[in-house]
Amino acid sequence: MRLIISLLALASPLVFITLASAHAAPERFDPSPGAVLQTAPPQVQGWFIQDVRRQADASFIKVFDAGAMQVDDKSPVVDDADRRHMSVKLESGLGAGRYMVAWETLSDEDDELDGGCFWFFVGQEAADKAHEEKLRINAPDGCPINLEEASALFTKPEETSATITIDVPAEVNGPDVTVGLSADGVTIRPGTSGKDPAFGHYHLYLDKAPDLKHGHGPSAMDSGMTGTASATSVDTGIMTAADSYTFKGLAPGNHVLTAALTYDDHTLFEPFVLQSVTFTVKGDSGAGGGTGAATVIIIAIAASVAGLLAGGGLAWGLRRR
Length: 321
Hints:
With 321 residues, the protein is mainly β. Helices cover 10% and strands 37% of the residues. The protein has 3 helices and 20 strands.
C-alpha cells in the first residue's frame, strides 16, 4: 500500500512582528511578501522601525529571479530625508515569474544587523506554481546575498522515483532480528554531502516515528554490508548503507521498523521516501512491544509530517504482516 500526503505551505501573507525595540526590523515592504502582481514593479521598497545606516553594503535590498540571477540595479538607496526608507530599482522588462527579495539592515540606533528574504510573484501562474511546489513565502534561513548562495537556495533536488524494500519475517524467534534492506531507483552508499538524487542511504527507526525535519540519527555511518545495534541504541535512528541490519535484544511483541531514504548529506529525499513494516518477536507480549505498537507509530509518523514547517510531499508505504 502506498500513501501520498501533501502538505500545503503557502498561507496568508507574511506579517512582520517586532518582539522588542531593537534592530532596524521591517514595518512593511512594497511589493509585500507573497504579493501577486500583474506586471513587474519598477522598484522594491522597504520601511523599517529604526534609521538605516549606509556602511560597507551592510544595508541593502537585493532582488533575484527564480534562476538566481540578480535583477536589480545593484545600487540600493537609503533615503536621505527618511533614513528608515530604503529602495532599489529593478531592471526594465522583467517578465512573469517569482522573485526573491533579500534584505539586510544595519541599525544606526543600536548597531545591530537584521535581515531576511521573501518571495513575490508576477502573474497568477507563477503564484499557483509556487503553491503547488509548497514554496514558503518567507524563504528559509540563509537568505541569498550573492549568486552562489542564491543558486544553492533556489535549486531544488530533482524528485525521485526511488523505493525502499524491507525484508523481515512476519514472526521472528528473536531476540536478535536481522532485516534485509534494498532500494530501487537509487544507488546506496555512505554519504557526507550533496543532494544527487542518484545516490543515498538509509535512516532506520525502530518503534519510533522518523525525524522528518532533519533525518539525522546520532550513530556513526555503517558502510559495510551488514550492521548491528542493540535495542537500547536505536531510539533516535540509525544511519546505514548496509544491505542488512541486525537489531539485538528486542523484547517480545509487535515492532515497527521504518526506513527513510536520505541524500548523501543526510537530508530526506524530496518527496520523502519511507517504508514501514511490522513484525512480531515471539514470546510473552507483556515483556515489551505490545499489540498496539504499530498503530502508535503510524499516528506518530502522521503527526510528524503534519508538523513540518516547510511542507513537502511524502511517499510512504506500510507493509502489514
